[in-house]
Amino acid sequence: MAAKTEKLLQVKNLKKYFNVSRKDVLKAVDGVTFDVYKGETLGLVGESGCGKSTTGRTIIRLYDPTEGEVIFDGQDVGGKLNRNEKKNLSKRMQMIFQDPYASLNPRMMVKDIIAEGIDIHHLAKSPKERIERVYEMLETVGLNREHANRYPHEFSGGQRQRIGIARALAVDPDFIIADEPISALDVSIQAQVVNLMQELQEKQGLTYLFIAHDLSMVKHISDRVGVMYLGNMAELASSDDVYGHPLHPYTQSLLSAIPVADPKIERTRERIILEGDVPSPIDPPSGCRFRTRCPFAMDICAKVRPKWHEAEKNHWVACHLHDEEIKTENV
Amino acid sequence: MDHLMKITDLNVVFHIFGADVHAVRGIDLELNKGETLAIVGESGSGKSVTSKSIMGLIPNPPGEITSGEILFEGKDLVQYSQKQMQKIRGKDISMIFQDPMTALNPTMKIGKQIMEGLIKHQGLSKHDAKERAIELLQLVGIPNPEKRVDEYPHQFSGGMRQRVVIAIALACNPKILIADEPTTALDVTIQAQILDLMRDLQEKTGTAIILITHDLGVVANLAKRVAVMYGGKIVETGTLDEIFYNPKHPYTWGLLSSMPKLHAKTDKLLAIPGTPPDLSHPPKGCPFAARCPYAMKVCIDHMPEYTELSKTQKAACWLLDERAPKVDPPSTIGVGGEA
Asked: For this UniProt entry, what is the primary localization, expressed as one broad class (chain B) (predicted)?
């Protein structure tokens, strides 16, 4: 794979807090920084409640960020946006949602669902052009022209997800945020949808932010992978590095926790089984978020939040174990 | 080996939407003492309906077991009345449900929910039952059980609730434990904890487990034998190694190669085209014929018989007939073991 170097999206210290009661603040995303390069797939993994979906939704401005910058193609889209700017953003950035049963309006025909973006952005000059575009989209995602006049309930889960993809592609975006696009689908259908997404990426040069909790699927589709834990990014590197040579203790235990569909490996594998549960993001642990479950926690982990730094070339991690300054002090 | 349970020619039909949905279409299955049998398949393949038939939990109407028998220790559970089933359920056969958030009663202390079965089936006094409940909580790894026995489900996290559900299921030392997608609703690190716990408990108690799942990773982790279901039928059964390293049915091939491998590089996933059959109009022949890349004329009209491949493995596929052309499985199948 050729190295992709042109930055399409830069996320800097992004924070999203939710007020859950008068005095409690839920820090769903608490300062994440990463870049997405043009034409690549960046995978975002983590357990439920780690903030991966909130990150995606904040980037596309379904939520307004509490703090931090989102720079898309050189333009800051993290701050206040007027109507026009928001509209322009939504033409270039689209989203595929998790639940294909909930994300399509049951009272709209498939052609109107797909053409909604075309209408809003006036991309079709005539009704004929509009419907041609819809047909083209349907064929791109492996459905037929005849499907245009049907309603969502007439389709299976995998087909619905294809409609969701067609809707996202209709405005010819550059960047697609896919939030758990396959987790509601059956195994044999998951592979169909993932293959489709990869084909589309090759053909149209799309950039994906692929959010999922299925680590093996993320490894398969992503060029680089970011691992999140409790609102923070724990590690970010090429997918081979994250899976072959993980630095953060959380990544290591996460990888060892996945059951592998290979009995011989399963029988011999050493597991790092984490104790306990993910702490509440309303009252997260001080210092490093992972220290309460970390087998290597040191004193400093409770006091100082680990720096997000490049421990090896293109391998970012937030852990005191890999911070050169602290390492030498503690030896 | 003596079978703890033997299912013969089980058929379950749901009379629904003005049609008959044939959810389970004539399955045969044996379960031996103390073993873990995994039933794998996609949604709608009939795996959950099979387990519910064993528990006598098929709602009637609309569901109906039209034929077949489920022999448990020599007695046919299909013929049992609801009252007779109540004596078996939770005592000899118990179940872990998929979603620990909805499986527990939110208005009852968890201690009471565990004690329910103990008092009913084993005739323990309230005091003894509570003590046993605390023991059980300890067994499933809940810290501070004396205190937590008096808490309500909402005070527990998802993983902890699933532990409570397991404690309830194990309360009366059942002979069979049916685990219907026990870890699907949980996060991976919690899933690893629960799988570990289930393996430990099985070693301690010797309970036979029927594991129902679509996750082949979980299967590889826990099961000894595997039955692959598709379109209401069992298309292949075998030991864990036979199914993973020497599968013979094209659906099993498809299932195995449509999953990305964590330990090896896959360029493109081999997806199975199409969608599962509509069981209100079940296909006449092999249910997989419409999606099978090797389908022949005979597959569409005639359901293949089982071919015995070894003492433990059999598959229902016309490719195994001696008149059929020889077909090699995809190259991704059967390799493995290199960590």
From this structure: membrane
Q: What mean pLDDT do residues B66-72 have? A: 93
pTM of the predicted protein model: 0.85
Is A215's CB within 8 Å of B262's CB? yes
Angstrom distances, CA of residue B152 to CA of A280, B111, B136, B313? 18, 9, 16, 46
- HSE (side-chain half, CA atoms, 13 Å) at B91: 11
List pLDDT tens digits, range A32-77.
999 999 999 999 998 888 899 999 999 999 999 999 999 999 888 8
- Number of Cα atoms under 13 Å in the Cβ half of residue A111: 17
Mutating which of B263, B272, B291, B333 best tests the A interface, going by the most A Cβ atoms within 10 A? B263
**Which residue ranges make up each domain of chain B?**
3-223, 229-320
Which of B215, B220, B269 has the CB atom closest to A191's CB atom?
B269
Determine the pLDDT at residue B335: 56
Which CATH code is given to the segment(s) B3-223? 3.40.50.300
3-state class (DSSP) for residue B22: strand
**Which 3-state string (H, E, C) describes A5-50?**
CCEEEEEEEEEEEEECCCCCEEEEEEEEEEEEECCCEEEEECCCCC
ipTM above 0.95, yes or no: no
Summarised one tens digit per residue, pLDDT across range B23-47 is: 999 999 999 998 999 999 888 888 9
Domains of chain A (ranges; CATH) run 7-330 (3.40.50.300)
- Cα angle B130, B134, B138 (rounded to 5 degrees) comes to 165
